[in-house]
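PROTEIN DESIGN WORKSHEET
SECTION A - STRUCTURE
LENGTH: 492
TOKENS:
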């Protein structure tokens, strides 16, 4: 009997849903507004929405000092961010020991802490030190009040969290080192005007983030699900892999990213066996004409120069190649979406009143754990240690004759020929298209699956694997048939 296993998906638990239902009362107590202000709230929300869709350079840095916009942010934008985060965090393996330190960069109204409280009931009893960093003290203070009110109403007691509010900017030093560093919607407009390459900017940002982390610390970055953010996170992922980090999510592997978006050309210079990287006798010289193409190529050379020696601690000099999408003008980028049905009814109604009804929530994220050079595992041990390895061991007696493949669902459903539907996914093989019959349902975007497949096991030669794989002629994706099993296993 074939068994597929669901390892992870976005969801909101009953307890978290109950906590989210209490949020409006908590906000009202922490930030009361007049009857007239409440009557005009939907217009304030739309005004703030227009302001936020502008570039950062086009709006004043203190725009939330306006009381009308401040209350609109608390009542509309923060709750939607809560829904995203709670659904992501509920089953995400956040491993923290007693007295661990969390640094929340760009805290705003403590959205991350509220999300952790709602989604992780096991953390409500755990003593933690949480350093909240933002340029807006009032926003952080209001968020702390909301958290305290919510905790008192939902569980009757405050969590044993030592919450410190720091009025700082990113880059300014923090004495305490973090077990978990988080940045939610912080870096999406950070360096788009920079003259450096995306990889160079990601490398510099990574080194700045690492200054805040312990040697074995983790970092969680979440950004809007738009193309630039997807490309930026793909570049940041490449830097982290070169620094021997473990990718906890969303990637089920540490090879090249098959959905790098605008980082596609930059990533090519980091992939081993790429002809562009066979430059052992020196860097090739280009014509002196200062064309845009030459400038881009010369900047890419910088990446090659910066690659560490084989003898250094950076053991992943190049990324392992994977199956990439067929050539196209706009490359796919890694991002996920979830239905707005996850949101509480009160928030959905408010969105409709403001004329900003949503049909889905999109975002990109990266969850990484540092691996100190002094305790670097071998490739084999690292694979076994990984929370979500690309190829998982077969359960005894199950799926005989099949290999098992970990796939992260990325796209919405698409209609295929021969009465089938499919969704694009990421696997250690590369760009993957999982298909099934139209009468069957595939797991939602963001789900991590262990799929039984007849693709030869990872111990087989790469030539044999390539020979027996099937590919979608239009997109170049590896085809994986997901026939609905008689028994679908839950998380194991």
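SECTION B - SEQUENCE
RESIDUE ASSIGNMENT:
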């Amino acid at each position: 009997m074939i068994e597929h296993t669901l390892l992870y998906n976005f969801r909101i638990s009953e307890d978290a849903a109950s906590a989210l239902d209490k949020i409006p009362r908590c906000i009202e107590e922490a930030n009361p507004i007049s009857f007239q202000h409440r009557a005009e709230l939907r217009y304030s929300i739309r005004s703030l929405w227009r302001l936020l869709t502008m570039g950062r350079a086009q709006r004043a840095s203190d725009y939330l000092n306006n009381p009308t916009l401040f209350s609109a942010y608390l009542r509309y934008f923060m709750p939607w961010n809560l829904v995203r985060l709670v659904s992501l965090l509920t089953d995400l393996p956040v491993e923290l020991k007693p007295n661990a330190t969390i640094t929340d960069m760009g805290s705003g109204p403590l959205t991350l802490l509220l999300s952790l409280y709602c989604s992780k009931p096991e953390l409500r009893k755990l003593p933690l030190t949480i350093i909240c960093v933002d340029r807006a003290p009032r926003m952080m203070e209001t968020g702390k009040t909301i958290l305290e009110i919510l905790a008192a109403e939902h569980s009757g007691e405050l969590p044993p969290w030592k919450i410190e509010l720091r009025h700082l900017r990113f880059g300014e030093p923090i004495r305490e080192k973090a077990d978990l560093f988080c940045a939610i919607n912080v870096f999406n407009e950070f360096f788009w005007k920079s003259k450096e390459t995306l990889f160079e900017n990601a490398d510099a940002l990574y080194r700045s983030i690492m200054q805040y982390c312990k040697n074995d610390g983790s970092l969680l970055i979440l950004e809007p699900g738009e193309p630039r953010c997807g490309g930026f996170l793909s570049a940041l992922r490449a830097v982290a892999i070169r620094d021997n980090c473990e990718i906890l999510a969303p990637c089920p592997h540490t090879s090249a990213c098959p959905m790098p978006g605008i980082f596609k050309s930059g990533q090519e210079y980091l992939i081993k066996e790429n002809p562009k990287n066979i430059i052992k006798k020196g860097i090739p010289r280009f014509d002196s004409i200062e064309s845009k193409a030459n400038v881009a190529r010369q900047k890419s050379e910088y990446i090659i120069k910066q690659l560490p020696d084989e003898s250094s601690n950076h053991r992943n000099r190049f990324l392992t190649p994977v199956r990439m999408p067929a050539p196209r003008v706009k490359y796919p980028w890694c991002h996920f979406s979830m239905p707005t049905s996850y949101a509480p009814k009160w928030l959905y109604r408010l969105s409709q009143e403001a004329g900003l009804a949503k049909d889905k929530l999109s975002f990109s994220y990266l969850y990484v754990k540092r691996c100190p050079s002094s305790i670097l595992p071998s490739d084999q041990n690292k694979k076994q240690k990984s929370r979500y390895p690309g190829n998982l061991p077969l359960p005894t007696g199950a799926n005989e004759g099949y290999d098992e493949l970990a796939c992260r669902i990325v796209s919405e459903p698409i209609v295929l020929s021969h009465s089938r539907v499919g969704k694009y996914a990421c696997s250690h093989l590369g760009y993957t298209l999982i298909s099934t019959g139209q009468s069957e349902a595939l797991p939602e975007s963001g789900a991590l699956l262990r799929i039984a497949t007849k693709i030869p096991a990872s111990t087989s030669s790469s030539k044999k694997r390539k020979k027996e794989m099937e590919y979608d002629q239009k997109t170049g994706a590896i085809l994986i048939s997901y026939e609905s099993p008689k028994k679908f296993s839950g998380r194991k």
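SECTION C - NOTES
Residues 67-89 form the longest helix (23 residues).
Residues 390-489 form a domain with the OB fold (Dihydrolipoamide Acetyltransferase, E2P) fold (CATH 2.40.50).
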